[in-house]
Amino acid sequence: MVRRLISTGSPFEARIGYSRAVVCDGWVFVAGTTGYDYATMTMPEPVEAQCANALATIAAALAEAGASLDDVVRVRYILPDPADWPACWPVVSAAFATARPAATMLSARLQEPEMKIEIEVTARLPSAGQV
């Protein structure tokens, strides 16, 4: 079993002890990702903007692994306030229009109060289906 770790360079990865993504046996496991803009280390206020930022970070990790949002088979959304969820629907619908992964939305507190959404995905590498 070969494991490859992917980092976004977020200071949280080293401080907390995790990888943004782990590639193993044809699968890509992307850690729960919040809406930080890692270039500026800022968190936008609107949940839709946080959702878009999280998906952009996830897409970049998937690309580094050799996959894309179209390869996602499972997604989990975690929101402290379930009333924020409908505002995210257009963003996630556009992101997963092709993949249409199995999905779950949970309501739970997140690490910091400014965090309004966290997204975790599992993807299958396109080349893994050819084995």
Key structural traits:
6-stranded mixed β-sheet; 131 residues; 60s Ribosomal Protein L30, Chain: A; alpha+beta
Radius of gyration: 14 Å
Arrangement of strands in the largest sheet: 1-2-3-6-4-5
Major pleated sheet: 6 strands, mixed
- Helices, by number, come to 3
**Can you identify the CATH superfamily?**
RutC-like
Shape: globular
- According to CATH, what is the topology? 60s Ribosomal Protein L30, Chain: A
Poorly predicted regions: none
CATH architecture label:
2-Layer Sandwich
Could you give the count of β-strands? 6
The overall pLDDT average reads 94
Number of domains: 1
Percent of residues in helices? 25-40%
- What class do helices, strands and sheet pairing give? alpha+beta
Concise summary:
The chain is of the alpha+beta class and 131 residues long. 27% of the residues lie in helices and 27% in strands.
List the helices and strands and how they pair.
Blueprint: E1 3-6, H1 11-16, E2 21-24, E3 27-33, H2 47-65, E4 72-79, H3 85-95, E5 102-107, E6 118-124
Parallel strand pairs: 4-5
Antiparallel strand pairs: 1-2, 2-3, 3-6, 4-6
Helix pairs in contact: 2-3
